[in-house]
Amino acid sequence: MKILLTGATGYIGKRLLPILIAQGHDVICCVRDKNRFYYPKEFQNKVEIIEVDFLKEETLSKIPDTTDAAYYLMHSMSSSSDNYDELESTSATNFVNRINNTNAKQVIYLTGIVNDNTLSKHLLSRKNVENILGTGRFALTALRAGIIVGSGSASFEIIRDLVDKLPIMITPKWLNTRCQPIAITDVLEFLSKSLLNPATYNQNFDIGGPDILTYKEMLLAFAKAKNLKRWIFTVPVMTPKLSSYWLYFVTSTSYKLATALVSSMKVEVVCRDNRINELLNIKPMSYGQALSKALIKIDEDKVASSWKDSLVSGRFTNNISQYLDIPTKNCFIDHRKKEIINRDFTIQRIWSIGGETGWYYGDWLWSFRGFIDKLSGGVGSRRGRTNKHEIHSGDALDFWRVLYANKEEGKLILYAEMKLPGQAWLEFKIINNFLYQSATFQPRGILGKLYWYSVWPFHGFIFNGMLNKLIQ
């Protein structure tokens, strides 16, 4: 079967793709930018990549008429725009109009549990999208999930940040709200087993694990799983805005995402029933089992995807290809080079840079720069990286975004997502047994020039030290 996969670069989409291929399907991956979509070479004959922007109806003509079914895995809740609900409605409407003119029998939509009369803006928007998708000529299957627990999921990473960093937490009262978490493994099983299954047509289902817990209980269970002692006290005086700032400064989440999550966490999300478990013969794992599995994946450095690699984790809004040609006109450029001793060793060092590994030299300065960026409303450096030794175009890397990564060529280009009075690039490339490093800054006005001259004295200290560590 020919399956359309939207959100192919997202947390769920990246994990669903290999499952669909293993089931024997040909998968059409919808992406906004081909340059930030990575998949294993062995998938090459089973994957077709098309560039589609669902806010631009004319681009949807690239979707083949022969599509048999589709997954709708898109959302805009943490975009830079405050009217993300309108953007979601437009995307859904354009999607329905195009899919109506294909052979698609079914659309599967992953959304949130909406069993409360007073919904947050985020959940109300997701329900509205479900209503729009329900107007199509195809059969709609809506799977409604609460908190998704898995290595790299936004919810899991926020819980991990809070527990790892705060022995004592003074928290808002919404931590006593109940929810029904579900493991990412079970979400993927529900998604794959619902595909072209007539028993799921034109229905919506709540999917969740066997445990109903408060957010406080989830945090304490995580602490127990890591053998950490944590004390949590809830107070009634923390406003939604203060709660959002609390999440933003303590965790790696963006402020927009923190705001959306806080508004949703005040609403109880518990499954109405579990009839789909019997229908698809699925027995979801407990919250404790989901935590154990996620922690093992992290320890083994086998995180398949992370929400941090989505563009919504930072300030990057355009296609990567627009930034690949590093400018030279009206730019400040710091060029350095060193002769390398072992090419393979240097490549591996470059490909492991950032995250837990650090920047090899002057790490406290890199951390301080990330702290300043966080204070000014930027992404900071807490995002780290998804994999310790592998990076691909589009990945987040601390306060950078990977534009280009080619091991065989020995070239890596990073683009700064921190708040700056201009644009910045950091490039590493190996040519004729020499490692070249270039830091390029394109200033914006007088503030940009002042910024460059203020940090320039540190470049010799940081970049020379880093280059020596990369080749030794």
Q: Mind explaining what this structure looks like?
A:
With 472 residues, the chain is of the alpha/beta class. 35% of the residues lie in helices and 21% in strands. The chain has helices at 11-22, 84-99, 121-133, 154-165, 184-194, 215-225, 240-250, 255-265, 275-280, 287-299, 343-351, 363-375, 445-471, and strands at 2-5, 26-31, 47-51, 69-72, 106-112, 139-145, 148-149, 168-172, 178-179, 182-183, 203-207, 213-214, 231-235, 332-339, 396-397, 400-406, 411-416, 422-431, 434-443. The strands form 5 sheets. The chain has a 7-stranded parallel sheet with strand order 3-2-1-4-5-6-11, sandwiched between helices. A 6-stranded antiparallel sheet has the order 14-19-18-17-16-15. The protein has a two-stranded parallel ribbon with strand order 7-10. It is globular, with a radius of gyration of 23 Å. The mean pLDDT is 88.
Helix and strand layout, with pairings?
Layout: E1 2-5, H1 11-22, E2 26-31, E3 47-51, E4 69-72, H2 84-99, E5 106-112, H3 121-133, E6 139-145, E7 148-149, H4 154-165, E8 168-172, E9 178-179, E10 182-183, H5 184-194, E11 203-207, E12 213-214, H6 215-225, E13 231-235, H7 240-250, H8 255-265, H9 275-280, H10 287-299, E14 332-339, H11 343-351, H12 363-375, E15 396-397, E16 400-406, E17 411-416, E18 422-431, E19 434-443, H13 445-471
